[in-house]
Amino acid sequence: MPEHDTYERLIELLDASSVDYRLIDHEPEGTTESVCALRGHPASEAAKCIVLRVRTDRKTTRHVLAVVPGDRRVDLDAVRALFAARYVGFSDAETAERLARAIPGTVLPFSFDPDLELVADPAVVARPLLYFNAARLDRSLALSGADYARVARPRVEHIASPSPVQAGRA
Asked: In angstroms, what CA-CA distances link 164 with 72, 98, 158?
């Protein structure tokens, strides 16, 4: 498994941006539900980060880092409409790791690669506190959604839909 300097790069970026954040050490965990329990907050306060492959035509493929609340899922139809794409699907693990510069389960809601476009749902940037794994399975970070938006500069679009559990309660 390749080593990534993504954690150090994130901390340098946040410190240089004068952002208030909190680091949280915990048992190694990469699934949203499990790490939320370790950190002690509801999944709605987590940033779930998914690398997508977006095919706009036969020859053009883009990669998008979609960020949605932890209790929601990425609405692939919304992403397809947003990019006027023919196809949207999940990126393969190797490409996701290369572009996100993080192993699965530790992908940040930040993009440090010009080939990875960052799109966040409005519910993410509206959070008073937003939690996510800090490019490590054993450390997370909490900061305000407003500070996240200011530093990460995502394209903010409605890309989340209820999870199957939420849809069943509706």
From this structure: 9, 30, 18
Nearest to residue 108, comparing CAs of 69, 137, 134, 130?
A: 134
Q: CA quadruple 137, 143, 147, 148: dihedral positive or negative? A: positive
pTM above 0.85, yes or no: yes
Choose the CATH number for 6-161 among 2.60.220.30, 3.30.40.10, 3.30.1140.32, 3.90.960.10.
3.90.960.10
pLDDT at site 3:
53
Round to whole Å and give the CA distance between 142 and 130: 5
For residue 135, is pLDDT > 70? yes
Rg (CA), the chain: 15
Cα angle, residue 102 at apex, residues 100 and 103 outer, rounded to 5°: 125
